[in-house]
């Protein structure tokens, strides 16, 4: 399973979220519970017909990520919301296919579940 993890400002629009996804083709969207409830995120998930995994902050704490934001690490206990959300939602043994990419108010990362037979190494 391919999972897009998203971190974004509360003010992000559906269009900004969609633009950040670009040509990624996730099977699931993952983000923090508080962000998953926002209208722009819900609208994007509906538009794409994708399920959502809304993660509690505690689920991301302690998740090692290859990129780091000091502010995010201090607040959430992980270096990247997008990377941590993608990894947690993809399940045990998941690998990062794309490290975080920042597009305006949105950060996106993509992970693949360990059960996916076509899994490959991380790319930037």
Automatic annotation (TrEMBL):
One of the protein's GO biological processes: cobalamin biosynthetic process
One Pfam family recorded for the sequence: CbiG_C
Domain CobE/GbiG C-terminal: 2-111
GO MF, one annotated term: methyltransferase activity
Gene3D superfamilies the record matches: CobE/GbiG C-terminal domain (3.30.420.180)
Stretch forming the signal peptide: none
Keyword Ribonucleoprotein in annotation: no
Keyword flag Methyltransferase: yes
Record keywords: Methyltransferase, Transferase
InterPro entries reported in the protein's UniProt record: CobE/GbiG_C, CobE/GbiG_C_sf
Protein name: Precorrin methylase
Organism: Cereibacter sphaeroides
Source lineage: Bacteria, Pseudomonadati, Pseudomonadota, Alphaproteobacteria, Rhodobacterales
């Amino acid at each position: 399973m391919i999972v897009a993890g998203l971190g974004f400002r509360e003010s992000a629009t559906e269009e900004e979220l969609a633009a950040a996804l670009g040509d990624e083709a996730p099977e699931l969207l993952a983000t923090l519970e508080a962000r998953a409830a926002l209208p722009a995120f819900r609208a994007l998930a509906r538009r794409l017909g994708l399920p959502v995994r809304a993660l509690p902050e505690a689920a991301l704490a302690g998740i090692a990520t290859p990129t780091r934001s000091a502010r995010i690490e201090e607040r959430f206990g992980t270096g990247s919301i997008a990377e941590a959300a993608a990894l947690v939602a993809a399940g045990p043994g998941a690998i990062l296919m794309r490290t975080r990419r920042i597009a305006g108010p949105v950060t996106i990362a993509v992970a693949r579940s360990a059960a996916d037979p076509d899994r490959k190494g991380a790319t930037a």
